[in-house]
């Protein structure tokens, strides 16, 4: 998607703006977000999920504050036993999973 030079420049700019590289690429460079999502899904080994296709009434309620979900662009999808599966926009954002785990007291796994 990017040349090595473009990737280096984008990494520096994202760092300056204190945002993840994925978010920077999607928001600032108008890259094809679906193509980027597919590449990241393969690279990080996490499933790709179209959140718009999820039935919102089936999502676990009141486990995580809306502010925390907005902050990390992440949504809890379902809970199975002592595991919470979370859809994240950036699988490299491990802070999101840590904050969800802290907020809920439940171990978290990412889905992208």
Q: What's the structural blueprint in terms of helices and strands?
A:
Blueprint: H1 4-16, H2 21-28, H3 33-44, H4 66-72, E1 74-80, E2 83-88, H5 94-104, E3 107-111
Parallel strand pairs: 2-3
Antiparallel strand pairs: 1-2
Structure description:
With 112 residues, the chain is of the alpha+beta class. The protein has a domain at 46-111: 2-Layer Sandwich (GMP Synthetase, Chain A, domain 3), CATH 3.30.300.160. Helices cover 46% and strands 16% of the residues. It is built from 5 helices and 3 strands, in the order ααααββαβ. It has helices at 4-16, 21-28, 33-44, 66-72, 94-104, and strands at residues 74-80, 83-88, 107-111. A 3-stranded mixed beta sheet has the order 1-2-3. Helix 5 links the parallel strand 2 (83-88) and strand 3 (107-111). Helix 1 packs across helix 2. The longest helix is centred in the first third of the chain and has 13 residues, at 4-16. It is globular and about 45 Å long. 18% of the residues are buried. The model has no long low-confidence stretch (mean pLDDT 84).
Structural class assignment: alpha+beta
Question: What is the level-2 CATH architecture name of the domain at 46-111?
Answer: 2-Layer Sandwich
CATH superfamily of the domain at 46-111: Type II secretion system, protein E, N-terminal domain
Tell me roughly what share of residues is in helical segments: 40-55%
Count of DSSP strands: 3
Question: Which quaternary structure do these chains form?
Answer: single chain
Biggest β-sheet: count, sense, barrel? Answer: 3 strands, mixed
How far apart are the termini?
19 Å
Strand content: 15-25%
Strand order of the largest sheet: 1-2-3
Calculate Rg over CA atoms: 15 Å
């Amino acid at each position: 998607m990017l040349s090595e030079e473009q990737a280096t420049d984008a990494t520096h700019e994202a760092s300056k703006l204190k945002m993840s590289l994925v978010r920077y690429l999607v928001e600032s460079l108008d890259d094809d977000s679906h193509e980027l999502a597919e590449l990241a899904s393969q690279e990080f080994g996490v499933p790709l999920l179209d959140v718009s296709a999820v039935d919102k009434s089936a999502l676990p309620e009141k486990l995580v504050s809306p502010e925390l979900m907005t902050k990390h662009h992440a949504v809890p999808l379902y809970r199975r036993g002592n595991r919470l599966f979370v859809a994240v926009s950036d699988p490299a954002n491990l802070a999101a999973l840590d904050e969800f785990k802290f907020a809920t007291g439940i171990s978290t796994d990412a889905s992208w």
